[in-house]
Request: fold
Amino acid sequence: EGQLVESGGALVQPGGSLRVSCVASGFTFTDFWMSWIRQVPGKGLEWVANIKQDESEKWYVDSVEGRFTISRDNAKNSLYLQMNSLRVDDTAVYYCVRGASDAFDIWGQGTMVTVSS
Amino acid sequence: QSVLTQPPSASGAPGQRVTISCSGSNSNTGSRTVSWYQQLPGTAPKLLIYADYKRPSGVPDRFSGSKSGTSASLAISGLQSEDEADYYCASWDDSLSGYVFGAGTQVTVL
Reply:
């Protein structure tokens, strides 16, 4: 079926940087687009970024463009999100998600990123 | 304010049918497929419907999706207590070059 496990969430000061990671297992990682989706506790879902299988295409939501970078290491079945110039409103649970048939079919458990002084 | 519009809440008695709407525009739901997600309290979202009406294996056939023009709907028939959750619709938006979600609908079983 497949599994995604995120890590790297932490408390960071405004203006700081953080990289969150995701390891995939149980499916052929190189066959799928991958995304990061975030959720402020108690609020709705927001798609953050996605990346094509060979990294030739990357797309970002406007609010993170220029600050966040999505990447992947297919040899390690891993997905990353490098977050720079973090703001208080970036505080959220970040989910690693597999894309399939224009939908999100496998979700990780999420990793919490808190931006606060 | 979300690009896709959903009602904030919906409710029904056990066994009844509940329908949740998702309204978008020509740049998203009108030209792209819609997916639906169920989020139980304290858990990650789960895919319920993709490509407007298709169900992944393991999703009960009580859940069904449809779309007409720029509006999509999720129907839950034979409502059960375990269906109490938040439900989200999503679609790619060609103008924004990104995925957009509805704000979510909280379903309550009376």
Observations:
- The longest strand of chain B covers residues 85-93.
- Chain B has a mean pLDDT of 97.
